[in-house]
Amino acid sequence: MKFTIYQNSRQGSRPYNQDRLAYSYSKDAVLLVVADGMGGHRHGEVAAQLAVKMLTDAFQLEAVPALEDPAQFLTYQIQRIHAAIEHHAASHDMLEAPRTTLVAAILQNNEFFCAHVGDSRFYHFRQDALCYRTEDHSIVQLLHKRGLIDKKGMSTHPDRSKIYNCLGGDKTPKIDLHQSQDLRNGDTFLLCTDGLWSVIDDKEIGTLLNAGPVNITVPKLLELAETLNNEGPHGDNISAIGLQWQELQDPGLGVSTLSMPLGKTTTIINPPTYQPTIRDDEEQEVPDLTDEEIEKAIQEIQLAIQKTMR
Fold first, then answer.
1. C-alpha closest to that of 113 among 52, 72, 64, 55
2. Across 118-204, where does the E strand assignment appear?
3. Alpha carbons 22 and 46: distance in angstroms, whole number
4. Angstrom distance (rounded) from CA 42 to CA 95
5. Is 59 helix (H, G, I), strand (E, B) or coil?
6. Where would you tag: which of 15, 198, 267, 287 has the fewest CB atoms within 10 A of its CB?
7. What angle in degrees, to the nearest 10, is found between the helix axes of 44-62 and 70-91?
8. What pLDDT is recorded for position 152?
9. What are residue 30's phi and psi, to 5 degrees?
10. Helix 291-309 and helix 44-62: axis angle, to 10°?
11. What is the pLDDT of residues 110-146, one digit of tens each?
12. Which residues, listed in sequence order, are joined to residue 116 by a DSSP beta bridge?
């Protein structure tokens, strides 16, 4: 198994970053995950961090060296994340649970599996053509499917940033799952938050992403998205993971698992960033929790889950 991968996150003009992302791989499988903590709800960064941590932890335990059933793994683990967020809210007497979007993908045995909840997206490109893209669980997407607004109206609708499906919400999340058995050499994948795709359309994303190795093209996408976000009235965090399958365009940064031991996994979690930002036209916001407090909350949740499983 060979691939080239790059991930990073930009805080943008937001006072802090609620996005979380990571990838993990064993000898025969790769997991990619991006979560966007919902800023309109307290402790969204806790929900996002918990989602990434629980999913990568489970992958490390079960991908030895491949997952028995990737589709079932994604569905079950995402349900566990939602339950863990609810448990955290109940145990801390919170008026509402923290919330996050999630998009995750698994590549193994020349096929890929993708699951998502919310409006963080997964893209699959082949020879510069868009083969597949997740469908957002958003109000405007729902209106478009019903024929009430066109694609142009989706970008200007007042509810364009509202989603109806997430982890940690009042309702059990609907998990959309996609599977492809046609994974080919040179395929390129992108997982990203709405901070990127909301300001760069799909065609331009594909053009920029496929212009070279992902360690060069993904930073360019993030930089462009950050510039466009800062020019608009509402900034956002911007996060992305790019992966090119088999074709190592940059061998120095490529990953090969051919000599990797069967029981070993490697996980790279992008470190959260927090750089206080003050705009001239608004008061400074402060994060609900520090990184240390977030990690402590996650440890408490995982300990509680372990106790209930005994």
1. 72
2. 121-126, 129-133, 176-180, 188-192
3. 15
4. 10
5. helix
6. 267
7. 140
8. 63
9. -130, 135
10. 50
11. 999 999 999 999 999 998 899 999 999 988 877 766 7
12. 103, 176
What is the span of the domain harbouring residue 205? 2-309
Question: What is the tally of structural domains in the chain?
Answer: 1
**Residue range 56-70: mean pLDDT, rounded:** 96
Q: How far apart are CA 28 and CA 30, in angstroms?
A: 7
In this structure, what CATH number is given to the domain that contains residue 175? 3.60.40.10
Statement: residue 282 has pLDDT above 50 = no
Q: For residue 307, give both structure tokens.
A: 């106790």
Q: What distance in Å separates the CA atoms of residue 100 and residue 165, rounded to the nearest whole number?
A: 9
Q: What tokens were used for 233?
A: 């009235």
Q: Count CB neighbours of 258 within 10 A.
A: 7
Q: Which residues contact 123 (CB under 8 A, 6 or more apart)?
A: 130, 132, 133, 189, 190, 191, 192, 202, 205, 206, 209
Q: Which has more confidence, 302 or 282?
A: 302
Instruction: Answer yes or no: are the C-beta atoms of 154 and 198 closer than 8 Å.
Output: no
DSSP string covering 66-114: S-S-HHHHHHHHHHHHHHHHHHHHHHTT-SS---EEEEEEEEETTEEEE
Amino acid at 247: E
Specify which of 58-72, 171-185, 218-232 reaches the highest per-range mean pLDDT. Answer: 58-72
Q: What is the pLDDT of the chain when averaged over all its residues?
A: 85
